[in-house]
Amino acid sequence: MKANRGQIEKALDAPPADIRFFLLYGPDEAGSAALGKRLERAMGPEAERVDLDGPILRDDPARLADEAASFSMFGDRRWVRVNGMGEESLAAVTALLEAEAAGNPVVATAGALKGTSKLLKLVLDSPRAMAFISYQPDAREAEQIAIALAREGGLRLPNDLAKRIVDLTNGDRALMSGEIEKLILYLDAAPDRPAEATAQALDALSADNSDADAAPLVNAVLGGDLRAMHRELGRLGEAGTAMAAVLRPLLTRAMLIANIRTSFDESGRLEGAVEAAGKQVFWKDKPVVTRQVRLWDAHGIARVIQRLAQAERASRSGRGLGDLMVRHELLAITRQAARER
Fold first, then answer.
1. Cα–Cα dist 82/123, whole Å
2. What does the pLDDT look like over 21-80, one tens digit per residue?
3. In terms of domains, do 191 and 274 share one?
């Protein structure tokens, strides 16, 4: 059946017993992914998640129905997530919807399916399934999305700053999320200790604040190239660039690596994880980003983000740590990456 936003949100927040399959599709893939997170929260952190994709279901059409009917080996709740579903999954979804029983909810994300899609028609015609299409939000909707994303992290985002973030990211939900995550880290916000976003903080971190071309330094530090790191620090020093300015692009890349690494660890397919990052990875940067994801495991890159965020705050706090602390952190991170090469 076709669902409106209110219906799909309600169903994902509390999956009804008579709905066994949710299809989230449309041109706003980040919006579909965000909706899928609602089911993840509803199932709880202890729930067992089974990850599948289109090629797996194409090769084994019975797998989806089997997983939906299986019990968790740990006795916890269980749910199934399918990324990148397309027409190749028609037989698998048919088997799921026609099965006698399916106790575990299944959520699938897909791109912009055509109106002639057999998969879409199957789901729309079934009382056991829900389909919802996500369109790219307009400017006002995007601003509300930005405010909501910030609120979830404990950040109060004024309307004027939400508009700036939307303009900076062209309304791309994934890029907006990245900018807001940086603000949350920078201001040390959390749901239990909310903070107010300021124009000064956004100026320090936003994508339009190009104090220097720091890309070579970013690649040197996160790629473990000590010689190139020292060379780039010298070049930026000669240009009079404050070390605080280089932390913003480093944080942006580190967060990107962390997100891709999480997807890679879940799927085991690095190329697919990089492709799934979409516009966040410029096509010319794909080879170097891929190498950096291989260098850093989830724990390591999380530690890098923490150290960079601490250095960012300290360098702007007037505590006298300044450029020396930033250089120390960059050297430590580069050395760690060099050991992993």
1. 15
2. 999 998 888 789 889 999 999 999 888 999 998 899 999 999 999 999 988 766 678 999
3. no
